[in-house]
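Lay summary. Proteins are chains of building blocks that fold into shapes, and those shapes determine what they do. In this project we predict the shape from the chain. Here is one chain we studied, written as its sequence of building blocks.
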Amino acid sequence: MTGPASATLPDGFAVRLDPACLRLGPRHLLGGSPTRLLTLSSAAVGLIDGTGTVTVSDAASAGLARRLLDSGVANPVPVAHGSTGEITVVVPVRDHQAGIDRLLGVLRGVPVVVVDDGSTVPIRVPDDPAVRLVRLAQNRGPAHARNRGAALVDTELVAFLDADTVPRPGWAALLSGRFADPAVAVAAPRIVGLANAPWTRPVARYAGLHSSLDLGPCARDARPGSPIAYVPSAAMLCRRRAFEAVGGFDPNLRVAEDVDLCWRLVGAGWTVRYDPAARVAHDHRTTVRALLNRRRYYGTGAAELARRHGTHAAPVVTAIPSALAAICVLSGTRTGAAGAAVTYAWMFARLRSRLDGVPHAGAAAGRLVGRAAWFGVHQGFAAMLRHYWPAAAAAALLSRRFRRRLLIAAVVEPVLSWVSAVRREPDAPHPDPVTWAVLHRLDDLAYGFGVWQGAVRCREFGALRPAITR
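And here is the predicted shape, written in a compact code that computers can read:
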């Protein structure tokens, strides 16, 4: 048994309905990922206060809070644990003395295990009883290094921080509060750019707003197929018992080891939480070459994930009606537009029927169809320009009509991405839309190249196959 021994929430634990959750009358909640409809009893409705919060005080409130959490329609109310005495930090490092010096300066007084993963020039640490140094004779990769460090930890919680990170004040206290839920195995912060980054560089501005490590401002559970599928190992806090129960990181993986760990934990019944209230800064790549090489490298891990986790690693996850409608829209023809309209009308009627008896059923069905339409078309554009760009480029050479569609997608998609990023972080430095569009396209090309590179090398093409759901 590798899952949690208990899932019962303690008294005082509180959850609050997610802002994206729709309340359809007093007894119905629509939300989560995948989207689901929850019907509450009259007693359960009485446990939700005016702010959408449920505070655990007995078995009934504990059961309701757990149901809301597991359905993805609610998130834990942030509460700082107030103590970091049960945490040991493990830092894998290779050839980054400056990063270690900077990080240890921030972690003074906290137990730290530094694992030198075969550095060319051996890493040095200060003469501090709280800091332990482990040297590996040869480079085995960050997964192996983290496991070696974690094996020396005896505290309840173990934090993994990369040498190019700098935790913000209060990060550990905020994250440790998440472990009041006995089902939580991992809590992870939001990873943001360093305050002293060279923001005058367009690449630095792009990386600061479009980092693959920054999972955004919304707290969520990380699980396959959801908006947040995993949390990065550059900064995460783990329940040591859960980490050991699933065997830690897979030492055979040099990339995507964090995705693999999260999915194995979720598969074993544990919860992985993302909490953007806690923040850790990261020294992002600020040159085009470094940024694109890192994106390509991340892409190479998709094939191994597909081999281990099947359709969880699929680049596109869609239901047949949504796929048909998106294809019709992307065709750009009158026939396609008519086909999309018919398909969306059928989807609306089907959802409206399933919501029969629920207040505001028509409005809810319309909202769900609109969301599905937007997501389906956007997912199609993104996949065509990212995972499938070699095939899309070949098709563009053969078809003038497709070439025009591809060009429109290549321009419109990054502009929408730029608008979304600026609205999300209006005070952050950001590049102009043209620079953003160019870097965004190069970013996708690099990642997609890495996916194909990994697939060919591993002879595993699951990361390029769409997953069709009901």
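What the prediction tells us: The chain has three domains: 14-76, 87-286, 317-469.
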